[in-house]
Amino acid sequence: MAETQKLRKELSLVQLTIIGLVGAVGTGVLFASTGMAALAGPAIIIAWILGAVFYLFIGLTYYELSTTYPEAGGPTRYSLYTHGRFTNIINAFGDLIWYLFIPPIEALATVEALSFFFPILINSSDVPTIFGAGLGVVLMLLFIPFNYFGVKPFGKATKYFGIIKLIFYALVVIGIASIFFRPGNFTNYSGFAPFGFAGIFAAVPLAMFAFGGIRVVPDYAEETSKKHNINNNIVKKSLLYTIFGQSILYIAFAVVFIGGISWAHLGIATGNWAGLSSVPGNPFVDIAGYLHSHIILALVLLVAIVGPFVTGYVYVGGGSRILFAMGRSKIVSSKVKQLSKDYAVPYIALIIFAIIGAIVAYISAPLPTIYGLLTDAVVAGYIGFAVNPVAMIVSRRQGITKKTNMLPGGTAIAALAFISASLIVFWSGWITVSYSVLLITIGVVVFSIISKIKQHVFNSFWYIFYILFLLLMTYINYIYSKSFIGNFYLDSLIVAVVAIALFFPWGIYSGLKKQFLLK
């Protein structure tokens, strides 16, 4: 870290935890419900629980690595120290795509909610009009001032906005459950799991979009207050509080969504779970509408507007740290490392990230559904995440991780985290995985040429072939889905076994013997 000016260490435990929670709880829990229920029926509750377990393992790898490398945008840098530059550029672009997609998704979700008051924003096909797309761009640019004036006011503002936001979410759950709840929806229509475990597994990737918000916690590890922060305990505690807090809220929303379905009011044949995929917009607005409760409707609309907006500006801040980290790693221009003299934030990275997000929002606005962006972001993100459990073990082997920071059972946790990331990518399906891999490949090829990154290619072979393996398995399952070779359960087992038996140890042995430091 050669910068003469430093990031300011001003975030408290409460602030960082709220940043993690409100960064996570946004569009995913609102818009994913219908998409998940169309795949799994009432068993979306199991999908959310599985998502929580999977992300607990992934989150625990951050728990250890963020104490070893408490850096801004840290998860985009861990693999640089353990595997060198080429693995790191692949990892970094997986992370960057995740971050670039989320703020535009949140901005467009806010537009969707505002269309209740301003119908001109959304057309009859539930697609943003030119006015809606324009407002999405404006919202992306409005995310800048929330992050520009320093991490201290950012932390304070997010703390208060976040608490209000979480109260609104809790009130929506309580309100819907108390006014309209049909227990029969859980068992009366082809049972609790009408599509079996295959449906549950297919729904998990949509849940994982919502869980990914925990990632912003280690992104701010370098900006936590020194006071009461022995061994970086602020980051450790924030990670655990965020995982458990969001898990409880997601499961609660899943329960009231299933119990709150009125088939007739949604215009769907009774028990037609798959038909829920055709329900446009925010399903909780629909539920509040047919409850004829002005209070619930007002709460849902506040959640639908404030929730995604807060998540959007939090992710713009996190995304600017990703670009900042990529500048430190010499993947992109070193200019993105520049900090504002007055506020000590990576202002150039912030502005660039927000502008790119505004362009993405405008281009993606005509898409007929938000689920395509959700799953593309999920796959790219978890391809990026997959390297971190391996990096955790390699960092131990290098002698960099202090014994006091090592998680008990760390090897098993890392292995389970690697399997979890692998299955999430596989369950996302061929089309989504192919798009995400293509986007990562384009970014890696272009910037490896621009930045002349040639080092440590051999150390990245395990990661390249791992991604190709996942791509191949999703293709096989897609093409041969109705034959034995394309059996969903068998293919899932193959992915898990090959990931842990081949790529996990290969990744560990591909690690550098000594920590790599850029000169």
Task: Please tell me about this protein's structure.
This protein has 519 residues and is mainly α. The chain is built from 20 helices and no strands. It has helices spanning 13-24, 27-40, 44-68, 78-83, 85-114, 130-148, 151-179, 196-211, 216-219, 233-259, 263-266, 283-291, 294-328, 347-364, 371-385, 387-397, 410-427, 430-450, 461-479, 488-509. α1 crosses α7 (151-179), α2 runs antiparallel to α8 and α15 (371-385) crosses α18 (430-450). The longest helix is centred in the middle third of the chain and has 35 residues, at 294-328. It is globular. The mean pLDDT is 88.
Topology:
Elements: H1 13-24, H2 27-40, H3 44-68, H4 78-83, H5 85-114, H6 130-148, H7 151-179, H8 196-211, H9 216-219, H10 233-259, H11 263-266, H12 283-291, H13 294-328, H14 347-364, H15 371-385, H16 387-397, H17 410-427, H18 430-450, H19 461-479, H20 488-509
Helix pairs in contact: 1-7, 1-10, 1-13, 2-8, 2-10, 3-8, 3-10, 3-16, 3-17, 5-6, 5-13, 5-14, 5-15, 5-18, 6-13, 6-14, 7-10, 7-13, 8-15, 12-13, 13-14, 15-17, 15-18, 16-17, 16-20, 17-19, 17-20, 18-19, 19-20
What does the radius of gyration come to? Answer: 22 Å
Low-confidence stretches: none
Q: How many DSSP E strands?
A: 0
Mean pLDDT figure? 88
Q: Into which percentage range does the β-strand content fall?
A: under 5%
Q: What composes the largest sheet?
A: none
Question: What is the overall silhouette?
Answer: globular
Query: Tally the helices: what do you get?
Result: 20
What is the SS-derived class?
Answer: mainly alpha
- Helix and strand element order: HHHHHHHHHHHHHHHHHHHH
